[in-house]
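quick q for whoever's on today - can somebody do inverse folding on this one?? i tried earlier but teh output was garbage lol. tokens:
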């Protein structure tokens, strides 16, 4: 009998539902929230209210597109954390209620685990290209920057992580400094492709081991722009492309330096990336170039699975369901869930 899993993702400002059957994706529906652009960042209260409005139609549409009925579902996987507590509460409560009404198991998923396993999302009629265990995942998003050794779908070891800002946060704060709007990462990526990455250089942090730090790099950009603007008020407007290119290169150099070291020390050549920042074109190009240079096998998830989506929650939940993992109905969402 086929295992049909409904995945629900509501960790931040995207309401998403997906259905997989024996590991093959049948549908993936995402409702994004545009209201936050006016505030320069996600407003938690507005996000949770929007989830309440979106979750029923999103789940209904995901089930419809999958060509199944609710009664066909084998289990429901949902994001327990990390994320915004109000947003997580909406998804968790809905998943509990639906599982209880259908009398089927509930499986909680760590949002970060979903990003790490995104390369295992299989689409019908598409030959999958999946990493072999163990592999190293560069997990980079707005809230997390980690180097993770993935021993199996359920076994992880954090080799390094940021001690302050996440790299996605650094991108967004840089964009805010430069007046580029929110979300800043895609805008910086686009402008960086038009600029000279070697024209401006910014201080790169030096942190022991495999940990990251990005707050100093952000401060370096702030002071650099401030001092140049004092000399020439039009400096920022006339140099946005080169500033973005230089800042993005500094971030990518920092990420890659530690990733290369982690690969050498662990003697692992299976390398993946996950999280919203893994959509950055400069980072993807650099990963592929380093892979060719160092004889890595590099696996990059399709762009549509780099940002928050329920397909990754469904596949992570499917792995756990197959391993016999079940979640009690009294489970509560948590905003902080960094350790695996």
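ok took a stab at it. sequence:
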């Amino acid at each position: 009998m086929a295992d049909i899993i409904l995945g629900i993702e509501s960790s931040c400002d995207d309401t998403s539902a997906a259905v997989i059957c024996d590991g093959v994706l049948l549908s993936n529906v995402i409702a994004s929230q545009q209201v936050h652009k006016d505030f320069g960042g996600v407003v938690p209260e507005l996000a949770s209210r929007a989830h309440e409005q979106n979750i029923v139609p999103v789940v209904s549409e995901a089930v419809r597109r999958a060509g199944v009925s609710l009664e066909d579902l084998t289990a429901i996987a949902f994001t327990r954390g990390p994320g915004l507590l109000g947003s997580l509460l909406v998804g968790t409560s809905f998943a509990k209620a639906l599982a209880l009404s259908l009398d089927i198991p509930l499986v909680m998923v760590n949002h970060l685990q979903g990003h790490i396993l995104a390369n295992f999302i299989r689409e019908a009629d598409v030959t999958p290209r999946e990493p072999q265990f163990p592999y190293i995942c560069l997990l980079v998003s707005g809230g997390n920057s980690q180097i993770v050794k993935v021993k199996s779908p359920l076994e992880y070891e954090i080799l390094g992580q940021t001690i302050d800002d996440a790299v996605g946060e650094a991108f967004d704060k840089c964009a805010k400094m430069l007046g580029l709007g929110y979300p800043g990462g895609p805008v910086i990526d686009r402008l960086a492709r038009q600029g000279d990455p070697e024209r401006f250089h910014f201080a790169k942090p030096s942190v022991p081991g495999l940990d990251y730090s990005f707050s100093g790099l952000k401060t370096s950009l702030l002071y650099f722009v401030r001092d140049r603007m004092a000399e020439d008020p039009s400096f920022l407007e006339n140099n946005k492309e080169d500033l973005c290119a230089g800042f993005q290169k500094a971030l990518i150099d920092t990420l890659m330096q530690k990733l290369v070291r982690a690969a050498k020390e662990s003697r692992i050549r299976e390398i993946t990336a996950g999280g919203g920042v893994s959509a950055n074109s400069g980072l993807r190009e650099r990963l592929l170039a380093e892979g060719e240079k160092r004889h890595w096998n590099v696996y990059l998830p399709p762009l549509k699975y780099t940002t928050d989506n329920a397909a990754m929650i469904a596949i992570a939940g499917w792995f756990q369901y197959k391993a016999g993992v079940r979640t009690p109905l009294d489970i509560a969402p948590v905003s902080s869930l960094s350790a695996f």
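fwiw The first strand starts at residue 4 and ends at 9. also The CA atoms of residues 50 and 122 lie 29 Å apart. so keep that in mind when u check it
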